[in-house]
Amino acid sequence: DIKTINTLNGAKYTPFFHIVDSNAPKINALFTLDSGYNDSVHRLSGMVSENSNITIEKKKGFTSFSWAGLVLLDKSNGVCIGSNFNDNGNFYEIKNPSEDELRTIYEGKGVLVQNSELTGDGLTANKCGDVGVHVQLASNARFSGATINSCGHHAIVVSQSSSVTAKDGEYCYCNDDNVVCETASSLDISGSNCSYATFHNGVIAHRGGKIIFRNGIARDNGGWGLHAVNDGHINAESARVSGNGKSGCSIGRLGYLYFRHGKSNNNGQHGINISKTSQVMAQDAEITGNEGNGISNSGGWSDVTQAVISHNEGHGLAAYSGGYNNGVNGTIIENNGRNGVMCDNGRTNMRKSTVRNSSGYDIRVASSGHTTLDRLTTTNTKNVEFVVSSGGFIQANDCKGFVNMTPNVFRERGLVISNSLVEGDT
């Protein structure tokens, strides 16, 4: 006989415990809704707290409620170290959802935090309907070491100017994206595992969201491993991104990725895909074994100093449609399935780097592409490894090898300016 209530902010809930302007009794029991899923009452939940303080002991909490385990509202403070918020919402009611249904069909949260604070290191919120832990409306939360797996929509959502620390956790197996940070919020999930999302991405930052993912793992997700878009920022220093269905890292529309010492290997598309005025810093990175290009840059900017880009099925390093691969210094690009470096209406600036053993050409410049090369080492053969077409431009200083046209003479196919390249047989 639980009653539906109106909260101070006008929302309706049906809570087992409703705490208002109070210090709640310490919860040292595990409450489980035993009557089965019930959507006939509005937002049937374990505890709703308004402007109150609550403490829930380790392994205690609220499970199997039809909407939420714990709801913290309006300056509430929850201390829930190691607490249990598994199985809340309608996760078990949805069977084999389609990709189009994910955003609307799931309901309920393990924990919802609005304009409040949560301390929940080591908590669990597995198999919740919509989101395991949702932090929004200028809230602050810390739940490092948490386990939030197999939720219908996301494991973690941080939004609307909130700040969260959730380091060294496991946030995997969600049907949509595992972790989302958006709308001017910040999230630190360093050292966490964000893998095996069914349809979409391991980690996504968008609409001004900022994520720190140092030493994190994002592998075998159905979509991208890491996705920064719409002014989203990800610091993924030393992160490992592998085996994802699409590109390992996808950065678009003013997105930013810091990927120093990162590894993006064996992904279904590109190692790193850059587009639409985005930026990637991938110094000392390893980009190998991807089914597309190692790095594919369409209209963005990258720095791949001291990187290794090898054994990708497409081009090693590609610049299209105004893409600019600028800081290519001391980088090794080898054994790629098409061209080592491809500039098709894009630009690449390389110095003291090695490009060798490409299945196509080591350097290919087309469609008004522009490549500046200084002390570059290429495959040591008498074959042409520098190729220009359709108004391409190569500027090569102290680079040995053969090009498909006479250097320092303009032709319809383009221009090669060099003090060392010679024309080879084609």
Draw up the topology in text.
Blueprint: E1 5-6, E2 12-20, E3 30-32, E4 44-50, E5 53-55, E6 61-63, E7 68-73, E8 77-79, H1 102-105, E9 109-114, E10 117-119, E11 131-136, E12 140-142, E13 154-158, E14 163-165, E15 179-182, E16 186-188, E17 203-206, E18 210-212, E19 217-219, E20 226-229, E21 233-235, E22 240-242, E23 249-252, E24 256-258, E25 263-265, E26 272-275, E27 279-281, E28 286-288, E29 295-298, E30 301-303, E31 308-310, E32 317-320, E33 324-329, E34 332-334, E35 341-344, E36 347-351, E37 354-356, E38 363-366, E39 370-374, E40 384-388, E41 392-397, E42 402-403, E43 414-418, E44 422-423
Parallel strand pairs: 2-4, 3-6, 4-7, 5-8, 7-9, 8-10, 9-11, 10-12, 11-13, 12-14, 13-15, 14-16, 15-17, 16-18, 17-20, 18-21, 19-22, 20-23, 21-24, 22-25, 23-26, 24-27, 25-28, 26-29, 27-30, 28-31, 29-32, 30-33, 31-34, 32-35, 33-36, 34-37, 35-38, 36-39, 38-40, 39-41, 40-42, 41-43, 42-44
Antiparallel strand pairs: 1-2
Features:
single chain; 426 residues; mainly beta; 19-stranded mixed sheet; 16-stranded parallel sheet; 44 strands; elongated
Number of helices: 1
Residue share in helices? under 10%
Could you give the distance between the termini? 85 Å
Q: Give average pLDDT, whole number.
A: 97
Number of strands: 44
Question: Could you tell me the strand content as a percent range?
Answer: 35-45%
Shape: elongated
Low-confidence stretches: none
Radius of gyration: 26 Å
Largest sheet: 19 strands, mixed
Structural class: mainly beta
